[in-house]
Amino acid sequence: MGQIVEKVIAPPMPFHVTAFDGSSAGPEDADVHLDITSPDALAYIVTAPGDLGLARAYITGGLQICGEHPGHPIAVFDHLQHLYDQIHRPSATDLVAILRTLKHLRAFRFQPAPQEETLPGWRRAVLEGLSRHSKERDKEVVSRHYDVGNDFYELFLGDSMAYTCAYYPADEGLDNIPGPYGDWNPVNWAKGADANAPLTAAQDNKHRLVFDKLGLRPGERLLDVGCGWGGMVRYAARHGVKALGVTLSREQYEWGTAKIEEEGLQDLAEVRCIDYRDVPETKFDAVSAIGILEHIGVQNYEAYFSFLYGKLRPGGRMLNHCITRPNNVMTKTGQFIDRYIFPDGELTGSGRIITIMQDAGFDVLHEEDLRPNYQRTLHDWCELLAANWDEAVELVGEPTARLFGLYMAGSEWHFEHNRVQLHQVLGVKPDDAGFTGAPTRQWWKP
C-alpha cells in the first residue's frame, strides 16, 4: 500500500501514511499522519477518487487523521491541497503493478455508502418523483440537515443558535486577517468552550447589522425567510418590530417558538413551519433572507426575488445574506456537499445576485463581502464542537459528529482561501414614480 502512495504522489509527501497491511509512506516527521485502517476505507478511496471517497473513509472511521481533533481537522486541508497538486500519472509498468496490488487488497469492490449519505440529485428525482426545488423536495432536503437534533446544534452553535455568518466587532481582530489584509494570526482566537462568548456577541452584532441596514423602526413589520431557530425574529421583536419567520425545519420551528414564549415575545414574534412561497401576508416594511439563497437554485432566483419584491410595500427594503462564489459562474456545490450536507445546493457570485435583484425591480443600494467573518464563525463552531465532542458523539453518533467537523473545518479553509465568499446585498422597492425614500448617505454603523 505504501509503495502505491509513493508511485502516484511526487515528493515531498505532505503526509505520513500508514496502512492496514503494515506498510507506510511519507516522512515520519510530517505535520499530519494518516492511518488507513481497513480494506473498506481503501475501497471507498479507490472506487470514488477525490473528496467523496476520502469523506466516506473518514466518516466511517477507516481514515484516521492523527494529531487532528475530529471536531476541528482544519490543518489537513492545506496538506490535501498540496497532495492534489503533487499527484501524477504513473508509468504504464507502475500502473499495472498498482492495479495488481489494489486487486490483492480487495480495493475494487462495491462498498455500501455510509448511511449518512444521500443519493445524487438525479437519482433522488427518479426514485422520489420530486423535481429539484419543488416544495416537497425542499422540505425533505432541509429536514435532512437541520432536523438532526436541537441538542446537537446547541453544542457548537452556542447560546445564539444561529447557523449563519456572524459579524465580529472590530476589537475581535478581524481588522488584521491573513494574506493581503495583513499579518494576522488565528492562534489569538478563542479556543474550545471559550469561543462561545465572542460567537454569541458576534451573532447578536450580525442581527444588529441586518436590522440597521433594513432601517427598521418600532411598529414596522419584518418577514424573515429561512429564519432558522428564529434569532433575527427575536432580535427584531426585542426592538419593537413585529416579525414573522418561516422555516421548513420542524425542529427549528419548535425550538424557535419555545424561545419566543420563554422571552415573552409572543405579541411581536412568530415562527411558522411553512415554505416561504406560502406566506399570504403582504406589504411588509422589510424582508431579511439570511442563508436561504444557497438552497433556492440559481434558475429560481428570478422567481424568488420577484416573489419577495411583491411582499414589500413601496419603499420597503430587502437584505439578502448568502454564501457566494468569487466569480459569477453558477456551480453546484460538489459531490461531498450534495451527498452529505446540502443536497440540491448551488452557488454563484454576488454580481449575478445583484443583476437578478435589479431585474426583479430592486434599487440595489449596498453590498459587501463579510468573508473573513465567516471564516472566524466556522472556527468558533469547530472549537465548540471539539470542546463538546463526547456529548456530540453520544447524541448523534461518531459518523455524524465527524461529518460536521469535516464539513465545518473544510468550509473554514475555503473561506480563508477565497474559494467562497459571504455577501450581503441591500435593495429597496421604489414606488411607481421611482422614489425609494432612502437617505442619501449610509445610515447604519459597520
TrEMBL record:
Name of the protein: Cyclopropane-fatty-acyl-phospholipid synthase
- The reply to whether Protease figures as a keyword in the UniProt entry is no
In the UniProt record, does the keyword S-adenosyl-L-methionine occur?
A: yes
- Domain Polyketide synthase-like methyltransferase intervals: 175-427
Can you supply a Gene Ontology BP term from the record?
methylation
Q: InterPro entries in the record, alphabetically?
A: CFA/CMAS (IPR050723), CMAS (IPR003333), MeTfrase_dom (IPR020803), SAM-dependent_MTases_sf (IPR029063)
**Keywords for this protein:** Lipid metabolism, Methyltransferase, S-adenosyl-L-methionine, Transferase
Q: Which CDD domains match?
A: AdoMet_MTases
The UniProt entry's sequence similarity note says:
Belongs to the CFA/CMAS family.
Task: List the GO molecular function terms.
Answer: methyltransferase activity
Annotated source species: Corynebacterium terpenotabidum Y-11
One matching Pfam family: CMAS
